[in-house]
Amino acid sequence: MDSFVRQKFPLVLNGLKSHNSRPMKHDPDDLIMLFSDLFREDYRTVLVKGSDEPEYLPATASGSYAQIIFAHGYYASALHEISHWCIAGEHRRTLRDFGYWYCPDGRDEAQQQAFEKAEIKPQALEWLFSAASGTRFHISVDNLSGCGAWDENAFRRNVRAQADYYLEHGMPARAGLFFETLKTFYGTAADFNEVWKKETRRLMPDDSATDTEVD
User: 193: exposed, middle or buried (C-beta count within 10 Å: 0-12, 13-18, 19+)?
Assistant: First the structure.
C-alpha cells in the first residue's frame, strides 16, 4: 500500500483491519477516530461526544480546535452533525452553530417549511454516509410538538434527488473524502451501488416501483 496513505491515515487502516476480522460494529468512537485522522490538523476541528443537544463551537483561540458536538453519543447524530460541517463554508465555520437559523421542535407551518428546505442537503449527505457505513438512515422532519411535516413526501423526494445528484456530480470536498473513507473502513465500497438501490427502495418504495415500471 502507498506509504503516503499509511502516513496520512494510520488509525483508519488499523480500524479497517479490525473490521475485516470481526462482525461489523458501529461505535461512535470509530467516527471520532476517522474524523480526527482526516480533518483534525488540516481544519483544526474535532468530533466530540455530547450529553445533550448537538452544537458546533468554533475555535476560540490560536492553536485551539473547533468542536462538532453530537447528541448523547449517538452514532446517527454524529453523522448528521458532520454533514452540516461538510456543507458549511469557511466563514460559517467561524460562527457558533455555523450562524444557521434554527427553530426547535414546535415549529409552525412557515417555520417548518423553512426547516425542510434547509435540511435537504445535510440529510442527503447523512443518508449517503449512513449507507457507506452500513447503518440505517431515517429521514426526519423533526417537528413532533408542532404542526408536523410541511410536506413529508416532497421532502423525501428532495432528499433522495439531492443524494442522487451528489453521487452523479460529486459531493463537497470534505464530504467526499469522509464518504470514501467510510466505504473503505466499513467495506462497502465494492457493492455500494447495490447498497444504495436497497436503501432507496426501503425509504422510497413508491418511487422504486415507478422506476421498475419505466425500466
Answer: exposed
